[in-house]
Amino acid sequence: MATACEPIATALTLGLMAALTLHPDRLLPTDPAVRSIARRLYEAVRDLPIVSPHGHVDPRILRDDTPFADPTSLFLQPDHYVTRLLHAGGVPLQQLGVGEEPLPENRAREAWRLLCAHWDLFRGTPVRYWFDSELVDIFGVTERPCAENADALYDLIAGQLRQPSHRPRALLRRFGIDFLATTDDPGDDLTAHAALRDDPAVDTTVAPTFRPDRYLEIGRPGWPEQVKALGGDVGDYAGYLAALEARRRYFIAHGAVSADHGHADAGTEPIERHEAERIYRAARAGTVSPAEAAAFRRHMTFEMARMSCDDGLVMTMHPGIHRNHHPATANQFGPDSGHDIPTAVEFTHALQPLLARFGTHPGFHLVLFTVDADVYNREIAPLAGFYPCVYAGAPWWFLDNPSEIRHYQAAVTEIAGFSRLSGFIDDTRAFCSIPARHDMSRRLDAGFLADLVAAHRLDEDEALDALTGLVDDQPRKVFKL
Amino acid sequence: MATACEPIATALTLGLMAALTLHPDRLLPTDPAVRSIARRLYEAVRDLPIVSPHGHVDPRILRDDTPFADPTSLFLQPDHYVTRLLHAGGVPLQQLGVGEEPLPENRAREAWRLLCAHWDLFRGTPVRYWFDSELVDIFGVTERPCAENADALYDLIAGQLRQPSHRPRALLRRFGIDFLATTDDPGDDLTAHAALRDDPAVDTTVAPTFRPDRYLEIGRPGWPEQVKALGGDVGDYAGYLAALEARRRYFIAHGAVSADHGHADAGTEPIERHEAERIYRAARAGTVSPAEAAAFRRHMTFEMARMSCDDGLVMTMHPGIHRNHHPATANQFGPDSGHDIPTAVEFTHALQPLLARFGTHPGFHLVLFTVDADVYNREIAPLAGFYPCVYAGAPWWFLDNPSEIRHYQAAVTEIAGFSRLSGFIDDTRAFCSIPARHDMSRRLDAGFLADLVAAHRLDEDEALDALTGLVDDQPRKVFKL
Amino acid sequence: MATACEPIATALTLGLMAALTLHPDRLLPTDPAVRSIARRLYEAVRDLPIVSPHGHVDPRILRDDTPFADPTSLFLQPDHYVTRLLHAGGVPLQQLGVGEEPLPENRAREAWRLLCAHWDLFRGTPVRYWFDSELVDIFGVTERPCAENADALYDLIAGQLRQPSHRPRALLRRFGIDFLATTDDPGDDLTAHAALRDDPAVDTTVAPTFRPDRYLEIGRPGWPEQVKALGGDVGDYAGYLAALEARRRYFIAHGAVSADHGHADAGTEPIERHEAERIYRAARAGTVSPAEAAAFRRHMTFEMARMSCDDGLVMTMHPGIHRNHHPATANQFGPDSGHDIPTAVEFTHALQPLLARFGTHPGFHLVLFTVDADVYNREIAPLAGFYPCVYAGAPWWFLDNPSEIRHYQAAVTEIAGFSRLSGFIDDTRAFCSIPARHDMSRRLDAGFLADLVAAHRLDEDEALDALTGLVDDQPRKVFKL
């Protein structure tokens, strides 16, 4: 490590490079009186274990504990937050290895150089904030990345990734992650989860999440074949329902606590049984119309709530994304390559059928996420402020940045109070960013509560209790951990 | 009183309870330089009389001056702001006596205990802020409510409610309410208002408000019967119009200054006379379609503007609420039981027919309220910044909290200036919260203006003038008091 | 000048008038630590030349260099920002000379008196902020306008307007405008631009902008006649396309860098060639339906992007305005008389066809402006954060005020970084407000960046680099200057 670090330290000493440091008060309010309250609050929760009830880490990484190949495959290739901004800045995705396996070293190094050379593109974004935290806290980087130190940084990080200290399980321990949910296909055999559960060396609970989207969208190309992955007899609608229920039970047996749903809208209008059967047959025959498929999907979202009332899986909804907005990129690089774009979303009317039927069902939990910030105070908080089942999911995806988190805090809390929040959800596939994301959230929550204390709207003991709740109690309660 | 207070003071002294106090600078900006400006501004208006041109206090309470029965029937049962958050927190509405008359003491006390035990649910909400103000300012409470002191607080408040000092009229005087509008059915005989007007002991002007919603929504079940309450010959459309006009005159004769309209949308498209007549006949026959009923209601909103131009009643609009979202609760507890949920609302296109015809009519006033905060800067402020009749109504219902009030202040003022604001509207049925709500508004207005002064965008003498305007002149001008 | 100034100075000295001054720290953050960072940042860019790539100054003013007639024709008559607020405040537009040529002195003076007497209507608005800057910086006014000093101010300003120092070209030099784009009809001969380009005494580049709206909206009354202004053979669709392409080339030859599009929505769905031909023929015959005209306009927006890919003109979009909301005012005073009202706008779906085809075309630039602030974080920033062609246009029209600019800064930057912003666009027809508007933007950008530095999210050297980029590099890069 010393060898790898040396050239960097020298360059910094020579004044060639800007220093990279993490200020202890970063993200806290700037007013001195408020900051000192925020500091006290933050200190009380900064080292609490991480509870991550929804995310996209691949469990096989943890099961296999294979060292990460290099900085590029760790930080760059799989993270569309990063690659999309580089793409917007003129860097072709193929140069970044998007959609590929770990690259040969020359290509990996070249991609890393592109990242460092375009470091200014990330100014002001949370990606930059998380990067800074990860580079300093996990890899001991002391220089701000740039074209000149790209290779030295690559060597420094690559060197550490080969050490036992930086293998996936070691990082998992170091990050202090108490609970980690992954996102999984209903047809997955969950052997990775079983192996992790049965391994006494793993302290973290790694739970699967039931994500049935593609099985419910029966008009998608290939659905008649894909649906068979559910197992069971999916030849008719009754068998399809039974297969879904069976897979949910299988997931629950493997530790799942929630089922996640991400469709174009939040519709939940049920249809008559015979109509559902008819549309199902049409889908099997490949003759279903888009309108029929949408109606069926909304009906099935209603059915998923019914199943959640029966089997206890927490229902989470992530609607309102236009997927694969740029078809040429989707064709070349696959899904999740950075061109999913939010759309307006509506919950009040869309959820009414579901909530009219299940809204007060004991034990039913429904967590609503949005990429359309307008609905926080217009729809989500009012719903969460009446229905015992509804929780306001933490800011998601494009909204997981300081200004939108502050908006969410105020918009939801002032209408529904703290008890209706989900607690922070990182929803990330960038494993190393998990601690930075949770730390960012704790700082922002501390700051928001400090503002309330400074405005004499809350006593500090209450703020402390609320903060501990947000960080620890609330996600455990909402996700039934 | 001393007896009732004693155990509380003791508990507090013993450190068992948290103190409840009101900081003199609460809600003012935290930056010391800005706060000192805000303090000066606030001091200048804090004791001005309250003008409340729109709300839901029952005038019979003031006419009869009967003591409030107990803390539960005063604070809890009728206030869906409170009961809905308790319901979301898992407390069944029946335990809170929602929809019932004052409860027997054991049930009232039990409901009050539930409120105190769930005090943390209200953290960060304006409900909590108003509660704190009311408990301290009106009842001298010195402890933060909790399960342990619930009974003592109940006794303390119940004891005071039996005193002459805490009867409705005494509080009305103490609150310094100069003008108080209620909300009334067009068929109401307004005898309570007449009695209050004729009573020399009542200094406050208590005015009715004409609220014809259910008479204009001709497709609602029961409408053919209900419409008869208008009096006159409502057998045909001409008679119906005449009856509405007559009831407006009756309201005006009893002091009404405004007519309030709260429908699903803000539509104002007129229809042809013969079409209105045809739909009206269909409604009488019970054969009107939902689309016809909606068209008729939009047409009648246009007609209401015409009548306002003729008779001078200020027109206020409160659109965009999905009423009775949870039918089972509506069936059991009635309307206004906490599950009305906002929806997106549109004004620009919807109001165009009305404004094209009446937008520059001398003396016509149209105040637009919204629960969809998106329209403040997109639609309401631009409309109010051109049409002499349009005023931007203060944040309403779910939006009457500090963060949304700040959003409104900036969003509307920067586009349309201060002169296009309605001034604060409490719109409350919680009588004791009126002073706290107006005080909150004055503090936030002072803070907003202090920000402008501190940013050197406004001189302090102008800020003071603007603040006095908002608190006193503007509501009197907008509502023609 | 001395004579004109004297009564003012005397009145002020006598304490009859309030002083008008510009505080050096105006609009900077109020927290002392943050303010000092902001000051340093602002100082570094305050005197940089102005780059104005989109606006509405009439180039003939600069070509002819005729002195401005009087304060009223300079500040009041042509500026609907000002006249609309006076109109809302009860001042009839005819008294302000809206839609008229410069007024006779008695009417001009009377209009000016109305402005000064209603100075309080502008409190809190950016109009007031710009006015203050212009009055002090350009005309040396030292008193806040009011009814009492209106005539003295009129004389003071009118006197200066007669001086060489205050003729249009002198002001242009004094303002430090490096690049100024106007907005022009495709049929314009651009002789004013040619004259300015060929005049060695003019240092500023004054470029036309291609604004084809009315040629693309083929259902508008008069279109069959108007379209002939394009020249060429517009008898069929092919000739129409060729004529548009030719006019674009003509504009480019006269220095144009962009084409601007302002329609009711952002639709870009192309239609089949034969269908376009058919609809075009119907429009020529005056038989086109509104739906066909809308489909054709969306198709032509797609075609405009294709042309931009071919000829390099930057494409800017300004959708979502309901024009001429009050027909009676439009009929009497013409367009742009203050009653254009924003509507909700949608980009994600609407732009998908265009971006699917041209989104990664090398050198294509598409700048998206909005009056619907909801789409900043929901649609514009996500699009700009992936597509290399998409830039987030600075806050436009009703949104060009401090609070919305701050919202834009945070909403867009946190999702897409600084590099995807257009830089400030004044978009004004109020010539004298250009420096004040750019100065406001620089102050707000400095403040926003100072906040990031104070929160330890950015180092100060980076903030300085980002600020210089926003003020100078970014608009030059985005508009290919």
UniProtKB/TrEMBL annotation, chains A, B, C:
It catalyses: D-glucuronate = D-fructuronate. GO terms for biological process: D-galacturonate catabolic process; D-glucuronate catabolic process. It is an enzyme of class 5 (isomerase). Signal peptide: none annotated. GO terms for molecular function: glucuronate isomerase activity. It holds the Pfam family UxaC. Its EC number is 5.3.1.12. InterPro entries: Metal_Hydrolase, Uronate_isomerase. Pathway: Carbohydrate metabolism; pentose and glucuronate interconversion. Keywords: Isomerase. Gene3D superfamilies: Metal-dependent hydrolases, uronate isomerase, domain 2, chain A. Belongs to the metallo-dependent hydrolases superfamily. Uronate isomerase family. This is Uronate isomerase. It comes from Micromonospora krabiensis.
